Every structure is written in C-alpha cells, then in structure tokens.
Amino acid sequence: MLTRRLARWLDDRLGASRFARSALDKAFPDHWSFLLGEIAMYCFVVLVLTGTFLTFFFEASSKDVVYDGGFKPLVGTHMSAAYRSTVGLSFDVRAGLVMRQMHHWAALIFVAAIVCHLCRIFFTGAFRRPRELNWIIGLTMLVLALANGFTGYSMPDDLLSGTGLRIAYSIATSVPLAGPWLASLFFGGETIGGQTIGRLFIIHVLLIPVLIMGLLAAHLGVLWRQKHTQFPGRGRSEGNVVGARLWPTYAARSVGLFMLVIGVVAALGGLFQINPVWLYGPYEPASVTTAAQPDWYLGWTEGALRLMPAIHLRLLGYRVPELFFPGVLLPSLTFMLLYGWPFVEAKLTRDRAEHHLLDRPRDRPLRTALGIAALTFYVMLFAAGAQDIWAQHLNVEVTTVRDVFRVVVFVLPVGAAVFTWKLCRDLAGALPLDEYVKGGEPPAGPNELPVPDGGSEPSSVKELAKVGSAAAAAGVATGFVLGRRSSTKPRRGRRPGTP
User: 437 vs 42, 64, 233, 445, CA distance in Å?
Assistant: First the structure.
C-alpha cells in the first residue's frame, strides 16, 4: 500500500507513466538492415564487460622483468611487465585466454558493424535532413573505435604490436611543425619508451570509452526524438512508421539479438585463435616481424603506406616526409569528405526537404556509383597492405605486386563506378519508384500496421528469444571449455592468418 502511494506520488510529479506509455508504443521498422547498429551497440557491451575483466590482470608498465610463468618456451626471457601479464592472462589466469580473444573478436565485429551501418545509411540516403547530426555522431564513433582498436592492439608490447607502434610514431612525427610535439604527447617522449604503454592504457580504458558512451547516448537520444526512417512500400509514407511496437515485440527481438551476439563472440573467442602474442615474443626495437598485418580496419592505411612513392616535398622551408601523405593526409581527407557529404549532396541536389522514407540505391545511381567506387578504392588499399604475402604466394617480386596495385587501385574503382551506375539505371527503369511505393512491396502483415509513429500489434517472438538464449549459452560454454590453449613452441616472425 505504501509502495503504491509512493509510486503515485512520484508519477504525479514526474509524469513517468505517460512517458512510459508513449515510449512503449514507439514503432520500429521491420528490416534486417536496421539491426546493424544494434549489433555494434551489443558488441560494445561485450567489449566493456570483457575489458573490465582484463584490467584486473593486465599490468600497463614497460618495466623490465624476467618471465617465469606457465609458457615454458619463454621462461627466463627478459620482457616488459605488460607483455608478461598478457602471456600470463593467456596461460595462467582461468578463462583469461577466452576473455582476451572474445575482447579482440568483439572489437573486430564492433568496427565492422559500424562500417556496415554507415554504408546502409549512405546508400539509402538516411543521412539527409533532419539526420545530419546523427551522421556526424556515428562517424565520430567510428573514428574513436578505430583509435581504441589500435591502442588496445598495441598495449601487449609484443613484437607485432611494437612494429605497429613504430609505424604510428613515424606517421605522427611526419606532421609538419606539430608532429614531434604530438608524438611526444601521445607516446610520452621523443621515442617509444617507458610512458607509452601507460598512456595507451589510459586512452584505451578511460578516455575513448567514456567518449563513445556519451556519443552513443546522444545518438540514441536523437534517434528516439526523430521519426524512424523506413523503406518505401504499401502503407508507408513520410508521416508514419510501419513496424513493431517497442514492447513486447521489438524488445524481445532485441534481447534475442543480444544473446546471439554474445553467443557468436564467445564461440569465436573459444574456437578461433587470434593474436597469439606468445608466438611473436617481446618487443625488441632492432627486430621486426615478417608478413606483419594489422587488424582489418587499419589494413587500408597499411596499403596506402606501402603504395606511396617516395616524394620529397618542402613547404615553407620545412620538409614534408612522404609518410604524411598516406598516413595523415589521406585519412583526413577521407573523413572530412564523409563528414561533409550530407551538406555537399544537399547543395548539389538543392534538396532541403525533410526525408523519412529511404532511397533504394538503384534510384540514386550517382550516389551509389560514387559509394561503390570509394569502397573499391579502400578495399584495394586493404589488399595492397598484404603485398609481401601476395608476392610469397604468387612467387613474384614484391616490387611487381606493388606496381600492379598502384595501377589497380585507381583503375578498378572507376570501372566499378561505371558498372554500378549503368546497373542502377537499368534496375531503376525496370520498376519505377511510384509503382514500387504503390504495389512493389507485399501487403502489410499483422505485425506491420501503418500507424502514426505508434506501432503494430505484438507478435509471437518466443522462438527468437529461445534461439538467442540458446546461442548465448552454447557460445559461452564452448568458449570457456575450449578457450585455453596448450603450450607451443614460439615461432617469432610468423603471424597466423587473422581477419
């Protein structure tokens, strides 16, 4: 009785029940592509949970120690405390290896889901007014995810991550005038040294995660405030949203997806080896790994560095190192263009109206062609980052592979753009947009009743929830049972294939 009175008293002053009723009736479109953002969000949750576990055992220090842990081939080896704690996590901490690998796999999927989500937004025109702000927020989260992935990848202080840090330090110092100062601020000195790992640790576990959490909250807040986008079809217009209500239909689906994400990441962490740092050995400045490849989301920068010819340029009396162009200028131009694209397209098309219905990519041949050309360009850069591996497998000279990629990286995107433009024109002519809106989509089912930003009648989603829960339980169990690895002889200089 007292609890009910207290609830009424609070509701009378806060109006929580009215907000709850309105929120639970909010409609969400039924299309698989809208789940890409949720996959990224749930991967971030997995990253936070597994990362919290890892922080209890990781020692962010460059102090020189002698290894005496469970991996016998490294016993007696001098290494940093960071590398020793990473190897200890893999062999001496219960569930440590599966947690490390779950964390790494979740990071790879997290960035991949963000990239796919942004591609969906780009090709369907979901960045147009009034959603320019959310496009900017999403791009910023991608930049932070890339930065956090690199810092986390670099903290173990093994030979492979040390090679990446040396490349990053060289890129930072290539910035004219401010380069040495920026490198000193980020790496803690004029060279990679005792303060580097500690600074990477603070950036990785505190600064960037807090920024991502804040941007994610802002992203969801803007999304909640604005009307959801949806694909055109029968019963759908700029003034309504056709889909499932938040409660209970969409909430159950979302929980099922969360369980699926946990299950898949746990299964990957337990069954598929990634970043076996004990095989690389500790970082030594005079050594470098062969066939060294970064994680997939930085492969395009690796390719750009390898393809860039030696250009000696002086600007205002200062020499601009050749690393500046592929390592700083290209990424900067890439994200500047992405940030400004909604405003550039609005100006070129003179379209200032609000849009809540999405475009079919075929109906925007120029935008689609430009997007495919850009994707092809960066995929070719990614492939060029493994030019030494291509040369080994094809039994040709590395210089030959490099010269071929220098041509392909520009020719293939143009060909892909022309082909895409022609394909879009042909497909768009096969079914005009007005016919598509009137009858191209199947009639709305019992879970797709057009309502003005309301929702639809809930449907049975017990099967999805059961499948998600079973996948999560099976994945976690498999990961923890099979997540530990037996000791093997370290083979420094070779890195098993990873994404």
Answer: 33, 67, 5, 16
